[in-house]
Specification:
Layout (H helix, E strand, L loop, with lengths): L7 H136 L2 H18 L1
């Protein structure tokens, strides 16, 4: 025996006991442990494959949606362009219509002004004629006596006879 430690025989005995224990475990628990680890390995492998498949599907969906989004961006840009063109056309059309309406209003105002002017001129001339006739009548009444009146009437009648 070695002093201060265990003998080598003790070590051999512990090793043999350990080997027997391992042998018993392998004999009785080997198949269930092997099946457990095999099934665990298979489940993990299946889950990894499934995860890779799902990742690939997700990547494909992401690409598909990115393409659709890019398509939507193009469509939105196209719609914006169409809308801006329509707005510009509508603006031009409204501007033209406004100018035409302004021209019509201006022409109508000019026509109304001219009609009002003519009507006012006619009324003024009518009033002047009326006042002139009244003034002439008044002057004639003041300056003409009965003899002057008779001579004017006779002169008028003579002119009428000479026309026939």
């Amino acid at each position: 025996m070695v002093t201060g430690g265990e003998s080598w025989l003790s070590w051999v005995f512990k090793f043999v006991n350990f080997a027997i224990l391992i042998g018993i475990l392998i004999k009785f628990a080997g198949k269930p442990l092997k099946d457990y680890f095999y099934n665990r390995h298979k489940r993990i492998k299946d889950k990894l494959e499934q995860a890779e498949k799902m990742l690939q599907e997700a990547e494909n969906l992401r690409k598909e949606y990115m393409e659709k989004l890019a398509g939507f961006d193009r469509e939105i840009d196209a719609y914006k362009k169409v809308i801006y063109e329509k707005m510009a056309n509508d603006e031009r059309k409204m501007s033209i219509e406004a100018m035409e309406l302004a021209t019509r209003i201006r022409n109508q105002a000019t026509l109304t002004y001219e009609q009002e002017l003519k009507e006012t001129q006619y009324k003024i001339k009518e009033e002047i004629a009326k006042l002139t006739v009244e003034r002439a009548k008044k002057l004639l009444e003041e300056r003409l006596n009965k003899n002057d009146h008779n001579s004017i009437v006779e002169e008028f009648i003579d002119k009428l006879r000479s026309l026939n």
